[in-house]
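tool_call predict_complex ligand=2-acetamido-2-deoxy-beta-D-glucopyranose
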Amino acid sequence: MRSIFKVVIYVIFPLILSCFYRYVTYVQSIDPFASFDRAPFNITDISRLIHSNEAKTQVVLITGASSGLGKSSVKFLAQGFAQGLNDESTSELNIIMACRNMKKCENVRKEILSEVTPFAQDNMHRFMNTLKLLPMKLDLEKSTSIKMFVEELETSLETMGDTKVNVLMNNAGVMGISHQIVEETNTEIQMHVNHLGHFRLTSYLIKKQLFHSKHARVVNVSSLAAILPQFLQLEDINFEHGYLAKIKEYLPTLASIIYYGASKRANLYFTHSLHEKYSIQGIESVAAHPGYSRTSIMFTGWSWAPQFIKEVMAQNTIASMHSDDGALMQLRAALDLDTVKSGDYIVPMWFTAGRAVNVGKVFGKDSMYIHHFVKSLDWEWKRAEDLWSWSKIKIVQ
Ligand SMILES: *[C@@H]1O[C@H](CO)[C@@H](O)[C@H](O)[C@H]1NC(C)=O
Ligand SMILES: *[C@@H]1O[C@H](CO)[C@@H](O)[C@H](O)[C@H]1NC(C)=O
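tool_result ok
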């Protein structure tokens, strides 16, 4: 017993401390926002970045905009826009709120507008004319819905004066729903919606040339759950063989969590591939993960969990963040053109919570985030490539 204690004190503890130290010094060396001398990325930065953007008419498209991180993102963008308005401002901001439930979407739109309008103070008239929140119907589970959405979007962009999408925030996600194979792609539902749905949407926008030609950015919202690359097996995407099949049979709840992680790992691969393939064409690709944010997904998703567990999850404020704070990662990924580049990954400094920091490339020899401990292996790059081909085949099926 005593010797175990000694091992912990003299070996494991110092090891953890030194890893931590290396991580902090690394992040601080590559990212000004990681420094404690500076305020975290905040609403002031959001406001500054929106109003300093070269594109005078900006279009930001957010999937899953009616709750959680999507809703918080819309709110921050609108508030930042309102706060930065003055007599000289010429920017226009169009936020397209893509939602599954239009009624909810419309209510959220009203709620946000009433919340942020006071920030426009003396510039009310300008505010009313230059900020638009547009709810649009999108169900990522259905290819027909995605197709219709993109066609409607094309028309809307034309009426906005022939503008293009500057930011696509692939935010929507389902989590923890019980096992189900979606016929359309013959894929488990979380993978089908979170990965293939966004893949289809993004590919379609690229094909229709709806991204801004000079500056466009795609932000993928990944998750802490993406930590284990082993769970994303293209050869066995629905866990029909080996130990994953056993887990599915005996521990379906755990299987559901693993599926979710796999779909979020796919988001990281997707970011990497999109960066590799399209950054030359001006479509940048940045990934973000919100750490442990207290959002409604924890209540709607985990149908199996007893109420008290959900309460504890939602009340735990030590390791978690308010969903507004969680949204800062994806907002920085979307807006920060100065210190965030295509292929980068924005995460909370302390893994589950903390300031939005840039840990460098999603996959790369020099990246050093906890998610990256297994990253710079060549097979991960190859797997990203394989996932791309696999997804392409899936979406034409
Ligand atoms: C946000 O950060 C800036 C520094 O960039 C700081 O001056 C400001 O006080 C911060 N604002 C809030 C609301 O924390
Ligand atoms: C986002 O995720 C989708 C689906 O996983 C992927 O196809 C796309 O390349 C990703 N884009 C970025 C910027 O991460």
